[in-house]
Design goal:
Layout (H helix, E strand, L loop, with lengths): L1 H12 L12 H7 L2 H16 L1 H11 L3 H11 L9 H24 L6 H39 L5 E3 L5 E3 L10 E10 L5 E9 L2 E8 L2 E4 L8 E3 L3 E6 L2 E11 L2 E8 L3 H14 L1
Antiparallel strand pairs: 1-2, 3-4, 3-10, 4-5, 5-6, 5-7, 8-9, 9-10
Amino acid sequence: FFYSMKERRQESCAGDDRNFIINRIGDILVQQFSEENANQMKKIYGEFCSHHKEAVSLFKELQQNKKFQNFIKLRNSNLLARRRGIPECILLVTQRITKYPVLVERILQYTKERSEEHKDLCKALGLIKDMIAAVDLKVSEYEKNQKWLEILNKIENKTYTKLKNGHVFRKQALISKERTLLHDGLVYWKTATGRFKDILALLLTDVLLFLQEKDQKYIFAAVDQKPSVISLQKLIAREVANEERGMFLISASSAGPEMYEIHTNSKEERNNWMRRIQQAV
């Protein structure tokens, strides 16, 4: 990409490397952000951006070492570093792709409409936005996976819940590479007596899980002797009449139906939960 741009610049110099006009870059941008090049960038940028926080955290840990401090100090004194430290360099890379759309849009403003260059730039802009969306998705998936692992580690080993069919569901049953976290949040489970219990709800790829916090650990929620693990198969989400923050979760399993009344902090949050559950079922 860099060499293609550099070559195009050299072609446009015409003997003067200070005063020149580059008439076309759209074709280079389309080539860079499509097909195999785009797939490689999505993969590499996705992995790099996903580990941004971890990299900065590791750097701070390493700074406790005197030899490492001296090494960084020496490298930062190099003029090529432009006084940028490691965290700044990492941030520079993660932010770079987000600046491409603004740059291309600015070039489009000064490009003749209906020209081949305008057409290529429009196509490139769409491809760049697609790539950024793909990278954002990879980062989101990684962060959710990390959060799920943190929650798993915090679940009490001996905790369990009884399913509708009488089987016992334990923490160990949650451990699976195929199971990923889709959504999570604090909700309120309305009991048979009308009280509300604070619950951490986790929407996974195949089940909806309700946890309670106890002694800085998580346990399966124990409310009205109902299972706190609900299969997404035949799960229905319905609004509670005259309760804009409430929803009924109806599990129509073969072992027998079960209904849960769950409330959230806002109507928007309730609607978001219902939409995500319906998408996952």
